[in-house]
């Protein structure tokens, strides 16, 4: 199974990048994750939606070929970061390559809400007609890594056992879902 990973942060020591890397490594016997560099995408321009720049065309082809998406989002001001919204806006226009794709949303924040509000927004965005993704339903499946600074060690490993064990359960459900 081939998944494309999107991270909504370009920060060097991003907890969300750590979370995505953790998923890619821990479940490598179940799926392969290719992380897309959404920081290389230009700002969305509707004038170019039907003939987008090369970086966007490559990104859209990767999404089209994928069996599903893993999206690791920070929460910025109670929503998704602009970099992630920009990538999703490109996917939603011209050839709608994300339609029907299974998606797992995960997120890490330094606060006590663990990206909950951003994830609610992201579900709504992914339900729009241009994207129309199949997001793993939220009941019991919300991967919200709260107080992230205490859950990862210096080398970026997720070290909180209850969190790891919960993620194991959700990943098994996502693999069946895909
Ligand atoms: C934040 N942060 C934050 N946290 C949160 O729980 N709710 C929020 O609304 C926000 N808003 C917010 C806005 C902006 C502009 C920044 C830079 C940060 C804190 C955020 O959770 C923290 O910086 C994470 O570490 C960001 O994720 P990465 O970069 O570690 O993946």
UniProtKB/TrEMBL annotation:
Gene Ontology CC terms, in alphabetical order: cytosol
GO molecular function: FMN binding; oxidoreductase activity
Family: Belongs to the azoreductase type 2 family.
Organism: Alicyclobacillus ferrooxydans
Protein name: NADPH-dependent FMN reductase
Lineage of producing organism: Bacteria, Bacillati, Bacillota, Bacilli, Bacillales
Domain NADPH-dependent FMN reductase-like, residue spans: 1-137
């Amino acid at each position: 199974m081939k998944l494309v990973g999107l991270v909504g942060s370009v920060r060097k020591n991003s907890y969300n990048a750590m979370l995505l890397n953790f998923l890619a490594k821990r479940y490598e016997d179940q799926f392969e994750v290719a992380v897309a560099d959404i920081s290389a995408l230009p700002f969305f321009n509707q004038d170019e939606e039907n003939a987008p720049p090369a970086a966007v065309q490559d990104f859209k082809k990767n999404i089209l070929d994928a069996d599903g998406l893993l999206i690791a989002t920070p929460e910025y001001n109670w929503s998704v970061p602009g970099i992630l919204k920009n990538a999703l806006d490109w996917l939603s226009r011209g050839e709608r390559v994300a339609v029907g794709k299974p998606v797992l949303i995960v997120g890490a924040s330094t606060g006590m809400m663990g990206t909950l509000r951003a994830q609610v927004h992201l579900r709504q965005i992914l339900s729009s007609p241009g994207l129309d993704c199949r997001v793993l339903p939220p009941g019991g499946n919300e991967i919200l890594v709260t107080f992230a600074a205490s859950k990862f060690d210096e080398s970026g490993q997720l070290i909180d056992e209850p969190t790891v064990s919960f993620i194991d359960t959700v990943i098994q459900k996502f693999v069946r879902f895909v």
